[in-house]
């Protein structure tokens, strides 16, 4: 198995941290933009795309700040995290995504996140 590469991307989101967090941490919020459907039972989240299911465990979360998941089939220490950062001076809200991908899939993964976050911005009414 090849080592995955950690990458981070940032998106400016015109939303309150509280509202944004609801779309990152709840099954109903995640199913609005991240997957076709999301179910959860405790720490286990099931993400459904085109009928295919992927299970992830909620590793950590801090209300209105971040959520961190790990895919259950991952046999390494990889995870994906969505963190809300508020600039202290401008009060701009940014969404920082941390994820892992194989060396030859990093750009593709970044593009996928960009598309997903574009959907999130539409749902939030953020440009």
TrEMBL record:
Which Gene3D superfamilies did the record assign?
3.30.530.20
Matching Pfam families, A to Z? START_2
Domain START-like span(s) in chain numbering: 1-125
Q: What is this protein called?
A: START-like domain-containing protein
SUPFAM superfamilies on file: Bet v1-like
Annotated InterPro entries: START-like_dom_sf, START_2
Q: Which organism is it from?
A: Maribacter hydrothermalis
């Amino acid at each position: 198995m090849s080592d995955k590469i950690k990458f981070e991307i940032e998106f400016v989101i015109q939303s309150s941290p509280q509202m944004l967090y609801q779309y990152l941490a709840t099954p109903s919020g995640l199913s609005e933009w991240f997957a076709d459907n999301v179910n959860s039972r405790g720490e286990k989240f099931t993400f459904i795309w085109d009928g295919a299911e992927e299970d992830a465990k909620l590793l950590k979360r801090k209300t209105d700040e971040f959520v961190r998941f790990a895919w259950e089939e991952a046999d390494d220490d990889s995870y994906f995290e969505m963190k809300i950062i508020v600039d202290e001076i401008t009060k701009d809200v940014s969404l920082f995504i941390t994820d892992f991908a194989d060396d030859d899939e990093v750009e593709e993964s970044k593009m996928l996140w960009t598309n997903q976050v574009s959907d999130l911005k539409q749902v939030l009414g953020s440009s």
